[in-house]
What does this fold into?
Amino acid sequence: MFVRRLRSSLRGWGGVGAMAVGCVLALAFVLLLPLTQSHGEGGDGGTLGGQGLANGSQAKAGSCQESEAQNDTWSPSSADGPTIEAIKARKGDARKLIVGVDQNSYRWGYRNPNNSDADLEGFDIDLVHQIARDILGDANAVIFKAIPTSQRIPAVEDKQVDMVVRTMTINCERLDDVAFSAPYFKTGQQVLAPRSSSIRGYDATLAHKTVCTADTSTAFKKVTADKGSGKLPSTVKVVTVPNQLDCLVRLQLGEVDAVITDGALAASQAAQDPTLKLEGPAVTTEYYGVAMNKSAQDLVRRVNQILVDYRADGWQASYDRWLSATLGTDSSASKPPAPQYLRKS
It folds into this structure.
């Protein structure tokens, strides 16, 4: 019954709809398995040896302010350190960068059903290839591991991956657990709802409505806090899911009234389903960063140097290819954010 309802709700989507159906049906187990591109086979994908030798950590300096959290990172450097040396020392087919990504976020990190190789594509994936090219000299020297939204931090802390590049917002709470690069994208929380809905934004029109967020996400924490403070009606019911794509499916099935998530992701999901639209302006200012282990100061600094070069040559072309159709060419998101570095060498 669930499958028939899902197929019915997605009828007419074409290739993207097929992708969503396949992703949802496999979600219970596929996202927990190491995934590689056809040219990225190899490696055991387990705990990463050698990273514990990296020098330094990104402990928060004093009291973290959310408005400055995106700047709490190390200054750029192209030097190799213990973490990078350990990555380069991997042998044979295992000599690859291991990166946690999404495979279900349209135009960010997804498997295009119209691509004969079913390789991962999207804005985040382009950045991963750039990092691999710089560190290992081969843009395709990557083992991609699909990581659910709720497992991004554990994957970094347990060294299952070298880094996570997965629309991950930099904030003070997460800086307790992982280190971040300088920001590579600016966004904010928005509401995604059916065009026929009475919901008009992140406001009183959400009263007595059920909203969906990903567990441990920035959206979940904001909604919870705003209900408690009275910024949102106390009658708003919140449903959480392990992976953000689950919210889109629940919305299409009529199980929730709206989704609250990053506007950049919401815009891509609205592009998948013309019956949905973003309602109201963004209610936060947030920045995506590359998440790494707190012991890997040398890797953080190297990624920051890569981002310096990528902003100058590569970022805009990737944005134009993947995101301009949904986010526009003159919005605040259409240019890379200017970095600052609170941590100097």
In short: The chain has twelve helices and 15 strands. The first strand starts at residue 97 and ends at 101. Confidence is low (pLDDT under 50) at residues 1-47, 49-61.
